[in-house]
C-alpha cells in the first residue's frame, strides 16, 4: 500500500509506470503472470457468433458466465480477441476482471485472430516470465486501463 492515500501502488496513477509494474509483479502469483500472457478468443464466452469470417456476436448473443468463471477464474487473462467492437460485452467482461479476479487487472481487448502459445510453463524462467508480463502490465498502465477500464 501507498501510505499517502491507502491504495495499492499499482493502482495509483500518480506513481510512475515502472514502480506500478514492479509493485504488481511482486503481488502476482506464477499463475496470474502466465495468464497475463494468454489471449482468449471471445467466442469461447458467447452463446452465439456469426458463422462468417467476421465472427461478430449475433445480436442476441449472451455471455456464458460459467465459461468465463471456469476459464478466467481468479487469475484473470491478458487479452480477449475476436469480439469486434461489442462495447457492452467488453464492459461486462472488464467488470468481471476488475471485481472478480484477485488483483483486478483489466483485460486488454484486441482483434488479433491468430494466436500462438507464448509460454511453455515447463521451460520458461521466472525472470523471463516477469519481463514478458511487465511489458503487458506496462502497456495496460500506460493506456490507463486501471483508471478507465470501460469502453464508452
Automatic annotation (TrEMBL):
EC identifiers of the protein: 3.2.1.21
Keywords from the named record: Glycosidase, Hydrolase, Signal
Stored SUPFAM superfamilies: (Trans)glycosidases
Catalytic activity: Hydrolysis of terminal, non-reducing beta-D-glucosyl residues with release of beta-D-glucose
InterPro entries: Cellulose_Degrad_GH3, GH, Glyco_hydro_3_N_sf
GO molecular function: beta-glucosidase activity
Entry keyword Signal: yes
Keyword Signal tagged: yes
Biological process annotations from GO: glucan catabolic process
Enzyme class, broadest EC rank: hydrolase
Family: Belongs to the glycosyl hydrolase 3 family.
Record-linked PANTHER family: LYSOSOMAL BETA GLUCOSIDASE, PERIPLASMIC BETA-GLUCOSIDASE-RELATED
Protein name: beta-glucosidase
Organism expressing this protein natively: Cohnella herbarum
